[in-house]
Design brief:
Order of helices and strands: HEEEEEEHHHHEHEH
Structural class: alpha/beta
Number of strands: 8
Helix content: 25-40%
Number of helices: 7
Radius of gyration: 18 Å
Largest sheet: 4 strands, antiparallel
Length: 174
């Protein structure tokens, strides 16, 4: 029976990133356990491609230096907040009554750094290019599926002003 149990545990497939019911955290194919250990897990075929976006690349020290150089200025508090929201996304699960928070950045002008700050927030966890929702890039069903799969991870919906209001409303109120 013990061997059967071990085989069943070894065969467990994960189909969603973020927090598990056992207080583990899945990022890509790496499961972070409550005791601080990490292990590579088996992913459901439906999320294997998306998991490739969560492979660490580059240098953490370089990332920290670049983010500090870009955003450590008195006039950039709004963009600093946007970057920090990315780090806060996984913590929302700990607020039992709140499933998530939608942050909307708006300026009357383009080129103010909203998209870049959003991408920096994503880059703390993943390769942002395939994790940013943009109008027309995927069907509504595919977008909702991706939002469910990434679960407690940050998500950026770029250029909402070009999207249908009803679609945006459904995304925000999942």
């Amino acid at each position: 029976i013990v061997q059967m149990r071990l085989m069943m545990d070894a065969q467990k497939e994960y189909s969603q990133f973020g927090w598990t019911p056992d207080r583990e955290f899945l990022i890509g194919s790496t499961k972070l356990n409550p005791d601080g250990t990490e292990e590579t897990v088996v992913l459901h075929p439906s999320i294997r491609k998306l998991a490739t976006n969560f492979v660490p690349t580059g240098s953490l020290d370089t990332w920290v230096q670049l983010v500090d150089r870009a955003y450590n200025h008195d006039t950039l508090e709004g963009l600093q907040f946007a970057v920090l929201c990315g780090f806060a996304a996984p913590l929302m699960k700990m607020l039992n009554d709140i499933g998530g928070i939608t942050v909307y950045m708006h300026t009357d002008e383009t080129g103010k750094g909203k998209t870049t700050a959003s991408r920096v927030a994503l880059s703390a966890f993943c390769a942002w290019r395939d994790m940013q929702v943009t109008e027309g890039a995927a069907t509504e069903t595919a977008t909702f599926s991706m939002l469910g799969i990434v679960s407690n991870m940050p998500v950026v919906i770029d250029e909402m002003t070009k999207m249908d209001n009803a679609v945006v409303g459904r995304m925000v109120h999942l």
